[in-house]
């Protein structure tokens, strides 16, 4: 039997071909019909029986070794972004305004190759692997949709593994950390209501713009003055809309923003305080307040033991010098919901090879050094095999 690294190398051409095919045909949240077909076809080729349309455009497939053992959930997200591609490579997006600007094309190709590696090794494994191809990560709705649609029906999951490619880390490395590694993401809309009128007669109006301006400033103290500096959090107002003319005080101001936190208690506290400060600030200036709160995902939290176990596998595969300690990031990912199902680990595989592959995720020139895909296949497959090794 070839080693897992040798298998990943032998599959590399196929992994790249699948990635490029998906890259040419990006599909955004809940529109991943073609992608779903590509995934399902390949899984069927491998002798698996994929369930399609789970959570609208997700796919799950179970590899059962027939021997008693743990169940491992292996997840990849499959959606693209509404970003117009600016690269001139021959595998560039063929869909105007859409591209795989976060590397999920790579995630999908990698997990398909991982499935092939694991199927070929099933005689040496015990337990089961549930392959999860998740839509709509970019709007953090896909994991919830799949769970609500019975993605895990009849299964008790023991371990969860997943990866994200990373243009900020060089090819040949993996970055991982225990504890919270990606932030909880919530967003909100606030409507400050005053009483409009002529700009020359402010005393006859209640000016919602002045109230909104004070509110934006007041909200900045929630993190800077009320939150432990070591407990990383962000409150950002991202949108302010009001008014139509030079001489009219408008009726209302609409504010939008996001809250990012790592600690579950801090998340609850900041939400409550944000709404309280908003209510009191606007009321003190004679305005009313309405709000909508859009609960996003919790923080992505890596289990300490699972992370250490994965680190051992990674060190053996890549050498200890290539296994890096990850710095937590304020971005969010609904991998968090899969990690709530069982202990597990989300790790970041380097795909930066040079200038062309150093653009930030979501940038119109984002690209990956495809050599990182082979590393990702080997790491992901080895991580699962380590959990399912038959005695
Ligand atoms: Ni992503």
How would you characterize the overall build of this protein?
The longest helix has 21 residues, at 4-24. By secondary structure, the chain is α/β, with parallel strands linked by helices. Helix 7 packs across helix 9. The radius of gyration is 24 Å and the shape is elongated. The protein contains nine helices and 16 strands. The model has no long low-confidence stretch (mean pLDDT 97). Strand 3 (71-77), helix 3 (104-120) and strand 4 (128-134) form a beta-alpha-beta unit. The chain has an eight-stranded mixed β-sheet with strand order 1-2-4-3-5-16-6-15, with helices on both faces. 48% of the residues are buried. It folds into two domains: 4-181 and 299-387, Aminopeptidase (3-Layer(aba) Sandwich), CATH 3.40.630.10; 184-297, 2-Layer Sandwich (Alpha-Beta Plaits), CATH 3.30.70. The chain binds nickel (II) ion. Nickel (II) ion binds next to loops.
Number of domains: 2
Overall residue-averaged pLDDT value: 97
CATH superfamily of the largest domain: Zn peptidases
DSSP strand content? 25-35%
Q: How would you classify the helix and strand content by structural class? A: alpha/beta
Distance between the termini: 17 Å
Task: Please tag this protein with its features.
391 residues, alpha/beta, Aminopeptidase, Alpha-Beta Plaits, 2 domains, four-stranded antiparallel beta sheet, 34% helix, 26% strand, elongated, binds nickel (II) ion
